[in-house]
Amino acid sequence: MKDSGAPSIGDLVVALYDVERGLSCAGLVIEARGIECKVLWSSENHPIGWWSRSALKVISPSGPPKKFNALNNHLTT
What is the pLDDT of residues 11-25, one digit of tens each? Predict the structure, then answer.
């Protein structure tokens, strides 16, 4: 998630329109460009589509990237 609260790659999001209608379907941001995010939705047929960042709400930010340290067998930030 960006400092502004806008979604970024790896974030779990919901569509604000769905929230207004009482629906709940989470999606994963898989790509981002400018003011749009490509979202893979967790519905039955797993549709993918481009959404305006302003039409999405982050429900779980992706967090900082992690690297795997093969020598110590653990993740580091």
Answer: 999 999 999 999 889
The sheet carrying 56-60 orders its strands as 48-52, 36-41, 27-33, 12-15, 56-60
Number of Cβ within a 10 Å radius of residue 39: 26
Is the CB of residue 70 less than 8 Å from the CB of residue 25? Answer: no
SS3 (DSSP) at 18:
helix
**Residue 28: which residues within 8 A CB-CB, separation 6 or more?**
10, 11, 12, 13, 39, 40, 42
Q: What is the pLDDT of residues 12-67, one digit of tens each?
A: 999 999 999 998 899 999 999 999 999 999 988 879 999 999 999 999 998 765 55
Non-local CB neighbours of 4 within 8 Å, separated by 6+ positions:
none
Local structure of 28: helix, strand or coil: strand
